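We modelled the chain as a single entity of 326 amino acids. Its sequence is:
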Amino acid sequence: MHDLVVIGAGPAGLSAAIAGLRADFDVVVLEKGALVNTIVGYPLETQFFSTADNLTIADVPWPAVHPHPTRLEALNYYRAVVAATELPVRCYEPALAVERQPDGTFIVRSQRRDGSTGRYPTRAVIYAYGSYDTPNRLKIPGEELPKVRHYYSEGHPFFRQQVAVVGGGNSAAEAALDLFYHGAHVTLVHIFDDFDPRVKPWVLADLRAWIAAGKIATRWETQVTAVTPHTLMLQRADGSSEELPNDWLFAMIGYRPNTTLLSDVGIAIGENLVPEHDPDTFETNIPGAFVAGVLTAGALPSRVFIENGRNHGPRIVAVLRERWGR
């Protein structure tokens, strides 16, 4: 019987698991993809808004090179933390089900790479997976075409292509700017009349300059209503429409968590897909089942960052230590 199973090996899940390990808990971490899988999926040239000190976990120092670390530095850091703490992380082993037992314990079942089923009895579970695997959809005709992407990694393949980026947050702004720098013909389409105020200031300054110079086109207060192999159909707030030549569409409009693993065990899901939980202890309506990291924000993941989500796990472990007299 494990003391704690953590589902998700992002910064919040790792922080929780290490706190458990240091409390002499028997801990195992299940991760459906690679270590810090969401960060792996970030654009290759990502630079964090947070400083290195705000991205550290488990009191392990970050040997910062830049004031705002890069994606590559983050991957190096989190690998080093897991290696230093000898944390038992099982990558590429997704949790399939969590079953609550009559005595209040749980069994977490997983899918191993060899096709066998893992079975982990545990006293407590922390759900610490994110929302990056489930992108929001435009829900329009043509969205299934291969030219439509919901993730962005690099700009080179789109050199001299007609590319539209839908959205006005950090992901959309960074993709539009990087595509432009790699020679794409970029049009940014946003339902509102300006960017999200939380866009990284250095990205926003560059982007606004290129928009003002007429190098990056914009369609404010506009929605994409249909996608064809060579065009986009646009609808403006004033009722007018436009057919825009297009080779590729990046729908950078956010992500939402998959709540099936939560609801199957009886965890209530509230407004904006936020799991019902105590904001102080992070315990859900099911005793012994906790949430941590961006999952606590449901469909609004931008409300939780590494710098605050990293604190959830140690608080949960403190609750369990008091409860178990450890």
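As a brief sanity check on the tokenised model: The chain is about 25% helix and 25% strand. The domain at 2-133+255-324 is CATH 3.50.50.60 (FAD/NAD(P)-binding domain).
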